[in-house]
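Preliminary data (for renewal application), adenosine-5'-triphosphate complex.
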Amino acid sequence: MAAKITVYQALNKNAKKLHEDWLTQQMQDEGLREDLISNEELRLESEEFLKTFLAAIKDDLLEDSNSSNFDKLNEMLAGISINRARHGFSPRETGYYIFSLKQAIFKTLEKEITDLKKLYTEILRVNKLIDSLATVTFETFIRGREEVIIRQTNEISDISTPVIQVWDNILALPIIGTLDSSRTQVVMESLLMKIVETESTIAILDISGVPAVDSLVAQHLIKTVSATRLMGAECIISGIRPEIAQTIVHLGIDLSGINTKASLSHALRFAFQTLRLEVRKKTDKTAS
Amino acid sequence: MIVLNKDTIKIEKEQDVVFFRNRVAEYADKIKMGLVNKTKLLTAASELVRNMLRYANGGKVLCEIISHATLQTGVRLTFSDQGPGIPDIEKAMQDGYSTGKSLGLGLPGAKRLVSIFDIKTQLGKGTTVTITKWKNG
Ligand SMILES: Nc1ncnc2c1ncn2[C@@H]1O[C@H](COP(=O)(O)OP(=O)(O)OP(=O)(O)O)[C@@H](O)[C@H]1O
Ligand SMILES: [Mg+2]
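Predicted structure:
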């Protein structure tokens, strides 16, 4: 009668032990992040997962992990993986969750199935099933990480556009990185607001940190300059590197209507002149 | 001519542009292309990839490092999309022509920035643009 036992029956009979074995297996992993997940959480998560797993293999159909039997399991696994990705688990840690289950299952099967040939066949089937579940894990894990990256990209574009008041009536805005449409919007808004706030009359847009100026970036710059002018302020673009200047010319972009300067200090000097300010070195006479 | 390095990059969203541009920069650095030529290549690539996103809803780019019998080394990029195609190439290649209320400098500008420029388009089928920038050219 023992020879007729299915994988489901074997595992279900030993569900408690299997759970314990699996947990032990997971905790043995030296990479287990107790800082990221508590033992109690892990215990509950694993218990829930095992229940769903057993329900999915009830009919002994291990071959097709895409069938609707496995929907709930796949969904749950995806949820766990994406959660781990968001919380900073490594791919190894995430993968070990499902791979360690394999070990625990094999252990149970070895005990329950005495016929070696049958044991071999069943182990192969389980092996294949767990491997395809692992694929789900990795796919969702990567998706989770991509979401994190996109979120960070958006955050960076928000924080990396500081408008600095360098002098009375003079604002500077160093732009670092790629200037895309959404970024330009942020840049333009914060610049215009700061102009109103500080009643500045000159704004310096420094692009030394922009890797390339293509026609879209140029257009964004031109728009920003026109908008500043409409606010009654003059806009200077500084930090045009030689290689960028050459590229702009070949591309055919006409920046002749725009006040450009090679460096931020040139732009600042120009701004001082415009505002009739003078920066001088102290002489000994005035010092004494 | 031999191909030394090759890689295909899918372009589906705005975020892909930065990734793609970094890869092109990597290729240019690999063959020690100078800063001016590299910037020109990057800018041309940027124009074409933007067109692909804007007018054809994305596509893919084949990036290659090629070496020619005359010992010229360069980066070749092939942009292919399955968009609507361009009805009048001659017009599209003119400075200032744009159906997107833009500057209309992308295609003609890219052509001026690279060593070899080739464009093929079929209405309803898509557009393929191939550019090559030699290390010293
Ligand atoms: N991949 C493409 N598929 C379909 N049409 C295209 C494609 N690339 C360019 N075009 C057409 O060719 C025209 C000219 O392109 P070009 O890049 O020179 O100018 P633009 O994109 O309109 O403006 P800019 O690039 O200066 O912002 C476009 O307006 C568009 O109608
Ligand atoms: Mg264009």
